[in-house]
Structures are given as structure tokens and as C-alpha cells.
Amino acid sequence: MSDAAPRNGTYPPLDVPKPVAEGVWVVDSGPQMLLGLPFPVRMTVLRLGDGGLWLHSPTRYTGPLGEAIRALGPVRHLVSPGTGHWVHLPSWQRHFPEARVWAPDGVSERAAAAGLLLGPHGRLGAAAPAAWAGQIAQDMLRGWGFVEIAFHHAPSGTLVLTDTVQAMETHRLPLAAALYARAMGTAAPVGGAPRPVRLLMRRHAAANREAAARLLALAPERVIFAHGAFFAEDGAERLRNSWRWLLRGR
Questions:
Q1: pLDDT tens for residues 120-164?
Q2: CB-side neighbour CA atoms (13 Å) of 243
Q3: Which residue intervals of the chain are DSSP H helices?
């Protein structure tokens, strides 16, 4: 995370697995464009007890990245964790046809409407499927037209989120993107969910607060998410600060 990185929000080196903890890697990629502004995006890779790999929110596929992932172990699961993180899954499906694809209800239909074939082999909800139960616990955060499955990797004490926490380091962004992150409430170091996501989640405010409390009770050591500077330490405390809006119902 060098300060010499280009001001497009990304965290070079890009499109390579970087170890975070035992059995945990991140793959930083991007920039991902939103309203013409560049932002970072991230995949998380977990190793299961059988040595197989579990890929959360796959980012763009490249040949060298695919080979680097294969060197870590066989890819067993490709996970779309929520409403907007499925765009790159078809490429990974083509290169890893033996992997099972997982997504919440509505994601494959949304992908089909965009012209992308995404055939989940398993549906994700609040309970972990047998494929990783006992190793990765999960819960559901949701709103009007929005869903995010949160995952807790017990062996490493890592909580994996997607969009309900973002922490954009504004010094890495061009001015317009930095101003946007501040306006959306997603600027580091505290971060948070973008204000439109907060609005969507108010429809199920009580259920979301209960889910957040359950996830915090797991006392994660670190919290990894898809956009921005993830919480490499003091995970539970920093997540509680980032989720103040949710826990207080605001």
C-alpha cells in the first residue's frame, strides 16, 4: 500500500494473490469505474480444510492470476456475495468449470438481464451450506433490492464483507472521487456503507441490526471488504465504528 501508488484508488501490485493471514489472501484490482470515477475493488481467497479454495467476489480474470491461484490449491467455490459483485464470474466459470458457483437469490437473474450467463450451483442465504459449514459462518444483510452475505472464516478470525463497509483512502483518489467518497460516508479511516445502501437497508433495519450484532459478537481480528483500505487489525472495534449508523438505526 505504497503512497507512490497511482491516484486511481488501487492497491498495487494488482491481480496477484497477496497473503494476509494463514489461509487468507486478497487480490486487489481495478480501478472500477463508478459515475466516471475510479475506485478500487478486491477479491478475497480462503483455503478450506480440504485444501480447496473459496473465492469471494472474483475480480477480473487474467491468465497469470489464474495460474497463481491454481498454485495455491484447487478452486472449489466461486462466490457472488451480493447484488452487484457478479460481473467477472463468467470468466472464472470458464477457466474453472469444476468449481461450484454460489449466489443469493436474484443475482443470476440480474446477470442474465445484463447478458451474462451465471448459473449458480448453490443459493446463498443466512445459513452456511454444508460445503463450508463449521469453517465459514455467514449471515445476511439486506434492503430494498439489495442483499449482502457476510462470511466469517473461523480459522483465521477474518470477516469478509463486500459493500456494507467501504473505506476509501482519499489521498489515493483524484479529487472528484475523493469528494464523492466523503459525501457518501465511505472515506477512510472509519468508512461505512455508501449512503444509498444505508437507505435501502432501512427497510429491514431491525433484522440488519441483529445480523450486525451477531457478526460483531464473533470478534473478528480483521475485516476485509471489496473497496478501500480493509481493517487489517482491531477488526471488531473498527467495524463497530464503521457500523455506528446501522447499530443506532440511523
A1: 678 999 999 999 999 999 999 999 989 999 999 999 999 999 999
A2: 25
A3: 63-72, 89-95, 107-113, 175-184, 195-201, 205-217, 235-242, 244-247
Contacts of 63 (CB under 8 A, 6+ apart): none
Distinct helix (H) and strand (E) counts, the chain: 8, 11
Spatial separation of the C-alpha atoms in residues 204 and 97, rounded to whole Å? 36
Give yes or no for a contact between 123 and 104, defined as CB atoms under 8 angstroms apart: yes
CB neighbour list of residue 211: distance below 8 Å, 6 or more residues apart: 126, 139, 140, 141, 150
For residues 249 and 209, the answer to whether their CB atoms sit within 8 Å is yes
Amino acid at site 97: P
Separation of alpha carbons 114 and 169, rounded Å: 31
**What digits encode the pLDDT tens for the residues 12-67?**
999 999 999 999 999 999 999 989 999 999 999 999 999 999 999 999 999 999 99
For the chain, list the domains and their CATH numbers: 17-247 (3.60.15.10)
Rg from Cα positions in the chain: 17
Which amino acid is residue 234, in one-letter code?
D
Q: Looking at the whole model, is its pTM more than 0.85?
A: yes
200/205 Cα distance (integer angstroms): 9
Q: What is the largest CA-CA distance in the chain?
A: 46
Task: Tally Cβ neighbours within 10 Å of residue 134.
Answer: 9
CB atoms within 10 A of CB 184: 18
